[in-house]
Design a protein that fits this description.
The protein is an alpha/beta fold and 209 residues long. Helix content is 36%, strand content 18%. It has 8 helices and 8 strands. The protein has helices spanning 8-14, 40-57, 89-92, 96-106, 133-136, 140-152, 177-186, 200-207; strands at residues 24-25, 33-36, 72-77, 110-116, 122-130, 166-169, 172-175, 194-195. Strands 2-3-5-4 form a 4-stranded mixed sheet, covered by helices on one side. A two-stranded antiparallel ribbon has the order 1-8. The two termini are 15 Å apart.
Length: 209
């Protein structure tokens, strides 16, 4: 995989789940973000990054979601156990206590839970970022842009293991051109909002050229 040109095989791997099945999904409704656990400056940085990636995708944002109010909820915190104290969060994220225990044991610093509509498009996302010592060293702009990329599509669990989506250009964190082109292709209105056949990766690759 190169920064400039992703092959259909690269793309297929990026949307392959841990169990080996291909699954692509994009948002089917305007994105309405809300961010918890940060100061005003960081809030502006996070929302700015989300707005930039949504614009890149050619998708839309809105002031409110008629069903949920906010459909992209982002939580910053220091300890996974803090999530168990958030009112009603267990009603929004199925199996919250078990998930928190698993992530805590694994020493994870990020997790995302998606919800889908009847057509399989993303209808909500809950993103959790635990600010551990490693993330404390990462600039807020980098964390925010990485988050925005990770929530704009349903990536496979290991999509970016070998090739992170971000790069440095003259001291500024930017999205790699290949990933940016893939996000744009994923929101092509001709393509379905959800796909579970790996041949879909061929259609994405064709639109990136």
């Amino acid at each position: 995989m190169t920064d400039e040109l992703l092959t259909a095989e690269d793309i297929s791997q990026m949307f392959t789940r841990a169990e080996g099945a291909y699954l692509f999904a994009r948002w089917g409704r305007p994105i309405v973000p809300v961010v918890f656990g940060v100061d005003a400056a960081t809030l502006a940085t996070v929302k700015g990054a989300i707005e930039a990636v949504v614009a890149l995708a050619g998708h839309r944002m809105a002031e409110t979601d008629p069903e949920l109010g906010a459909n992209l909820m982002v939580f910053f915190f220091r300890d996974w156990q803090e999530l168990l104290e958030v009112p009603n969060l267990d009603q929004l994220v199925e199996g919250l206590a078990e998930t928190v225990a698993r992530l805590d044991d694994a020493g994870a610093n990020q997790y995302r839970a998606f919800r889908f509509d009847r057509e399989g498009a993303i209808r909500a996302c809950f993103a959790f970022i635990r600010m551990d010592p490693a993330l404390d060293e990462v600039p807020a702009e980098t964390i925010a842009l990485s988050l925005a990329v990770q929530v704009i599509l349903l990536w496979g669990e290991h999509a970016f293991d070998a090739h992170p989506p971000l790069a440095q250009a003259r001291g500024v964190t930017v999205l790699r051109p290949g990933v940016a082109a893939l996000i744009r292709a994923g929101y092509d209105p001709v393509l379905p909002a959800c796909a579970d056949d790996a041949s879909h990766a061929l259609r994405l690759a064709a639109r990136m050229r």
